[in-house]
Amino acid sequence: MARSAQLVGIGLVLSVLLSCEGGVATQVILEFRADPTVVARAARVRFEVIREGADPVVREAVLMGPDAQTTFPLTLPLSPLGGDARRRFHVVADLFDASGTLFQRQVRLGGFTADERRRVVVRFDPACDEVLECESEQTCFGGTCAPACVVPVALEGRPETPLSPCARFQKRLTFDASGLRADVERFPLLVQVVDEDLADHARPDGADIAFSSLEGALLPHEIAHFDPSTGALSAWVLVETLRGGTPLELQMSFGGAPVVADLEALWSTFAAVWHLDEGTSRAAGDASSFQNTAAVERAESQRGIAHRARQTGERNDRFSREFEQLSGFDLGLTSFTVSVWLFSDDGEGRVFAFGGNDAPGVFLAADGYALVGDVSITSELVPIEEDRWTHLVLVVDRERGEVRHYVNGSEGARTADIADLGDVSPRGVAPLTFGGAGGCCFPRGAIDELWVDRSAWTDAKVAAVYANQQREGLSLGPLEEL
Prior knowledge:
Elements: H1 2-18, E1 27-34, H2 36-41, E2 44-50, E3 57-62, E4 74-78, E5 88-96, E6 102-111, E7 117-124, E8 138-141, E9 144-147, E10 149-150, E11 153-154, E12 163-164, E13 169-175, E14 184-194, H3 196-201, E15 210-212, E16 221-227, E17 232-242, E18 248-254, H4 263-266, E19 270-274, E20 283-284, E21 294-295, E22 301-303, E23 308-312, E24 319-321, E25 336-344, E26 350-356, E27 359-365, E28 369-372, E29 375-378, E30 389-397, E31 402-407, E32 410-415, E33 432-434, E34 445-453, H5 459-469, E35 474-476, E36 480-481
Parallel strand pairs: 1-7
Antiparallel strand pairs: 1-4, 2-3, 2-5, 5-6, 7-11, 8-9, 10-12, 13-18, 13-35, 13-36, 14-17, 15-18, 16-17, 19-34, 20-21, 22-23, 23-34, 24-33, 25-30, 25-34, 26-27, 26-33, 27-28, 28-29, 30-31, 31-32
């Protein structure tokens, strides 16, 4: 009881110093928690509340020994000076060990909501011990420096408040999924917009542009392209669950510190993600964690799906990755999906292939034919329309025991005869190739966004990817200043 009373007393002192009297409380309660190893080491805590237009407030408390005044969790109520909810708070919390050495610092910046009491939960994590050199408006999170801003949640909200970008502006982003008949898991949403507000307020490299749920949880993303002169943006955002028949609403924030894009989380189920947007480089980078960079002798560039695409049609336009260099393609008896966009001049040619030399593999052609091991399939949705972008998807679904082929979001063929289909992982000496195979059959046109996902896409996911990458159903709301 004595510890509890002293802890509340510290909070009341700060509350009196920071708030005005009267009216409904406008307050943010910071609750500091710590892992057991941190609790065992922490002897003293020091809070510094940096206030706009006033001197900082500093308070300390002993956490260890016979003179201990309080213990975790620590509660720090804050109210804005003059009751002005437009003010922002900036709190630095330092932990010291028994020798008096600072060993962990947590920083939080945020704002108030008028006439509401809200909460921020901060955790002292052992991964952040001795991580003390983060820049201004950054804090340690998971052992690395990250933006220190938070969006306070309702008092009964989530147990840990996620960090958010230290942004000055945001816009509501809506994707119309009303046409979907089923939910889609782990959906890579393409956000492609041209927005004057982005041109006016985002960093020139777009590194401050971030995406979050309406509850404030940051979403893994990748900035594929940003033009600061026009505000043209192409970005990929991971949506864990896209609800069928329900509009998806997210927040896009910008105008602050750089944020961590987290490509590893975004493409975590993929063996390869070739965006093919490197212009005329003699390499095609892989955005997945496997880094399966593919080589090419020559490739001209043209306008593509998310940004740029690579032209194909000749032997030296073919991309390849040598067999012994491949990583993540140990497919075994797992399901997988190949997704690619093709701009075809003649509807012919080999789009993607691996295996060969008497070893089973995967083969995908522009005319709707595909081969998986010794199982062949031919799409009824042919011929592919020439001189326009076409989306081809090949799904090997081991759980359902079938291979499916899709053209432009619709299923064109399905076979259930794969009971004897063995391991189709690349082996032998033949390289993985796309934009042609062997010494022939080069599709004339262009190729873009070639992905190999180590999971089986559903009908709904194929349809959603096609609609989204056709730039359908995406809209931005008005600018909001934070």
